[in-house]
């Protein structure tokens, strides 16, 4: 017969979920600032006041933890930018909301710093699972923007001679470049720069940007 004092109680599910959330939040910040190679499991353990063994109980290795952070990063991009575009059908509105989303994202300095780190880190990591996720994220965004541009051209609201996919990649590059290059500028200058980029892009596809 097992004595009562010999039974080791498991942590409640809520405690386990809270610990996992704390690990992900700390890791997201560290990976965002330092990149995949710049962060060790020991760094994460120190930031969360947990043992390395406790970390490995929740995540098998650093790659799995980074992958989960990348998923959060993707959700963040969707929340700030792409989800808003999906709510409207008008190609013109989608283009306007794309640049508006960039401005909104750039207003959150902590998010911007982390986003910059993930943009850089995704390109430097050779892990197969992470590379696949990176390519899938790019492809999803490119396909959506390509469809938006092609629809606008077929409706006669956009006019351009190049491939829509190339313009879609240009839009992604503009977004990535804004986050990487403008994150240290004052918010007023950042907003002005994004507005200028929007004006140039809209002129390039012969769309009149809203005032």
Characterize this entry briefly.
With 211 residues, the chain is an all-alpha fold.
N-to-C order of helices and strands? HHHHHHHHH
Q: What share of the residues lie within helices?
A: over 70%
Which class of the domain at 69-204 in CATH terms?
Answer: Mainly Alpha
Q: Provide the β-strand percentage band.
A: under 5%
CA-based gyration radius: 21 Å
**Strands, total number:** 0
Secondary structural class: mainly alpha
| Biggest beta sheet attributes | none
Distance between the termini: 78 Å
Shape: elongated
Topology:
Blueprint (H helix, E strand, L loop, with lengths): L12 H22 L6 H8 L3 H7 L3 H25 L4 H16 L2 H16 L3 H27 L9 H19 L4 H18 L7
Structure description:
The structure is a single chain. With 211 residues, this protein is mainly α. Helix content is 75%, strand content 0%. The chain contains nine helices and no strands. It has helices spanning 13-34, 41-48, 52-58, 62-86, 91-106, 109-124, 128-154, 164-182, 187-204. The longest helix has 27 residues, at 128-154. It is elongated, with a radius of gyration of 21 Å. It starts with 12 loop residues before the first helix and ends in a 7-residue tail after the last helix.
